[in-house]
Amino acid sequence: MIRLSIIIPHHNQPELLKILLDSIGQDDHTQIIVIDDHSTLHLDELNALKQDPHYRSVMFLQSPEGQRGPGCARNLGIDHATGTHLMFCDSDDYLE
Fold it and tell me: Taking the complete model, does pTM exceed 0.90, yes or no?
């Protein structure tokens, strides 16, 4: 059972996103959803992150066509969330 869905809007900062994902860790009761808002920079790093087996449980989504901002990304994440609780993080955050 998924208890917590963490929704993360992302744009052009895969190196910071990686720090956040590593700080969250992996847990069978936590769903992590990253919504990319049409990044235009560091695409190789972002694609490498998506392909990294360490993050295979992370759901990577793309916001609708055109850059829409973090609000739209959060709403898309909510649509895909299955947890009983929601948490929002920005891609430049990290958890301690």
Answer: yes
